[in-house]
Amino acid sequence: MSQSPVSVVLANDAGEGEWDSFVESSDSAEIYHLFAWKRHFESVFGHDCYYLAARDDQGETIGVLPLVHQSSRLFGNFLISIPCFNYCGILADTDAAHAALVDEASRLARKLGAGHVELRHRESKSLELPLRSDKVSMTLPLPDMEESLWKGFTSKLRAQIRRPQKEGAVCVSGGPELIDDFYAVFAHNMRDLGTPVFPKKMFADILARFPEDARIFVVRIEDRPVAAGYTLGHRGTLEIPSASSLREFNRYSPNMLLYWTVLQYAVSEGFNAFDFGRTTIDSGPYRFKKQWGAEPGGLNWHYILEEGKPLPRINPDNPKYRLAVNVWRRLPLPVANFLGPQVVKRLP
């Protein structure tokens, strides 16, 4: 029996309601599939976004694929679903819709001269495409009660959480009023890592577009922000896309109080899982997340590539960028903060 034909169209702003209705009806949807991210990337970074919608012969949406176009001499020309975050990619009801979206993404890449398309999936999706799965996501199942979570920690971990509290550290949470404190820590940490920093308006925009889902947490010692992060909640999982602390205060372990406060909030709000984010197995960040009880889950990033091309490696681990990373670490902070947003908008 032949399948019904599938067409793929470019969704515009007028189709936001239909797009989001499909996303909300899908069990595999991430918050990053929502149409609001199109406006986010357009307004904050000036990216061209191609939001592809697969439709059946009745005109009903049966699949979506958000794509963001990035191009520069340094990092190349590519499409990605989506930059800055770990989970998105194809969302479709049928194999035919999957295939149609892959075909259209490939056609679009050729039209734009893009060397590759990166699809950031959690699941394998049985796509016959080149795959990168060397990173994992770290997730902690959450109990109903804070006391149960605390008792599940080792005595060493509990002591590490208490340490900054003994130094007078406090953690507060809120919204836009904390952006300056968050960004002061975040930008300093990114410079120290040798990584260009996102613009402050990125976080302001996220808080404005997702006021019920996004929240900022800041740890202060003597009124100085020393650790900070922001969270996004969706469908029972609280994620922390960015968390930072100042190295000069590492001896006080303010990041331990930051994460404990975020976990307390997650339990109190009824979330059933906490997502520590993407990491490399057996790395320092992996061990940090593992000590909280988080377990690794697979990430499957698929690529549509030109024939014979290797998987792209546009990340700080690539030896090609080692010199640039080392130079960036030595930049004065105001210079790094000025240049960073100009560079980072070209990174995946």
- The succession of helices and strands, N to C, reads EHHEEEEHEEEHHEHHEEEHEHEEHH
- Main pleated-sheet profile: 8 strands, mixed
Uncertain regions spanning at least 5 consecutive residues: none
The percentage of residues in β strands lies in 25-35%
Mean pLDDT over the residues: 90
Radius of gyration: 21 Å
Structural class: alpha+beta
Number of DSSP helical runs = 11
Tertiary shape: globular
Assembly form of the protein:
single chain
- The helicity comes to 25-40%
Q: What's the count of strands? A: 15
- The end-to-end span amounts to 41 Å
Describe the protein's architecture and organization.
Strand 10 and strand 11 (224-234) form a beta hairpin. The protein has helices at 16-25, 36-45, 95-112, 146-151, 155-166, 179-193, 200-209, 254-268, 284-290, 322-329, 333-344, and strands spanning 7-10, 48-55, 61-72, 76-81, 91-92, 116-121, 131-132, 135-141, 170-174, 214-221, 224-234, 237-245, 273-280, 295-298, 300-305. It has eleven helices and 15 strands. The protein starts with 6 loop residues before the first strand and ends with a helix. Strands 1, 2, 3, 4, 5, 6, 7 and 15 form an eight-stranded mixed beta sheet that branches. Strands 9-10-11-12-13-8-14 form a seven-stranded mixed beta sheet, sandwiched between helices. It is of the alpha+beta class and 348 residues long. Helix 2 (36-45) packs antiparallel against helix 7 (200-209). The mean pLDDT is 90.
What is this structure's SSE topology?
Layout: E1 7-10, H1 16-25, H2 36-45, E2 48-55, E3 61-72, E4 76-81, E5 91-92, H3 95-112, E6 116-121, E7 131-132, E8 135-141, H4 146-151, H5 155-166, E9 170-174, H6 179-193, H7 200-209, E10 214-221, E11 224-234, E12 237-245, H8 254-268, E13 273-280, H9 284-290, E14 295-298, E15 300-305, H10 322-329, H11 333-344
Parallel strand pairs: 4-6, 12-13
Antiparallel strand pairs: 1-2, 2-3, 3-4, 3-5, 6-15, 7-15, 8-13, 8-14, 9-10, 10-11, 11-12
